[in-house]
Design goal:
Helix content is 40%, strand content 22%. It is α+β, with helices and mostly antiparallel strands and 379 residues long.
Length: 379
Amino acid sequence: MVGLHHSDLQIFAGKEAVEIGWCLRKEFWNRGYATEAAQACLDFAFQQAGLSEVYSFTSLLNQLSQKVMQKLSMEFIKELIIKKFQQTVRFIDMSSTESGVSTKKAGIPMRTETEMFDVILQTAKVLQVDAVAMSGSRTNPKAPKDEFQDYDVVYIMEDLDDLIADLAWLDQFGTRIIEQHNILGNRRLYLMLFEDGNRIDLTLCPKDHIQEWVESEADFTVLEDPKGLFESYSPSPQRFWTSPASETDFKKACNEFWWVSAYVVKGICRNQLIYATDHLYGICQQELLKVLAWQVARNRGLVDIGKNYKYLFNYLSIDKEKEFSALLDFSSLDKITQSLFATMQLFHQEAQSLAQKMDFKYEKEVAEKMMRYAEERFN
């Protein structure tokens, strides 16, 4: 059960408030259900019910609930004793504008979502673009809402030449701290971080190449399209989701992991910290994350684990997240060595488990030989 209700407890900033809470049977813990359902409740609260704040609290001992609150981007307020319950409880505050996130910044006030859409659409009008659409996390109702979400926008137009020749029109979006300009096929991409903390990733796309942009995105929302240029295109939000592994992909991942582990050993033995770290995290641990994602997909089917596995641990236990996080200390060769062996053990464990569940063949003998190979080089 997950939901919202008006609380009469005068503990939420000393006033009555709307509280969000969840209670699931133990067999449904650590599967991401509470986070997913709570996010849907917050979306309703902010986008349909017109609320500006939602509160929640839990015992300091309740680590699982605290983790859910963190994944919802809720802000910590305070700890205190409630005599009614005779225990210390932790308060989390979710303050929101229309976008559902706090917009207070030190120095320059951060423009609200409404203000950002106004400037995006007004600039499009001034430039006489044919259509405007948005992609990225702001089109995904399940994505955590915070001040770091980009505005991924595309302007569709007849010709780009005049705009590319003189980029002074970019100033209409605000004062930029830093920017990047990129060429993507027939498109131009302008990445802009503004002084108020907002960021726009703006693509200019010729209308004859809309399909090129659509195929580069998963989901999108059309903001302005008076000529109906997007009518023949549909979003495919599941295009980049993770599906259950094929046996061929599983074998490739295992072979890559164990092969590259030898490069990590070589780097450590040669006292090449950067080389060893690059191969350990950049390749071996990425293959481990891939296997963990396949474990989730095996249990849940097609699943959105996000770019760079950013949502992966929403579906896994706290212990599994801690186990993986413990692998990420690369501060010295000794720490890298410890991480290598722990990574090997975890990969070996997870790969065997997945192979058994999927009825795949796992080269256990090869894995054990590679672990012995590493051990022998450090003895």
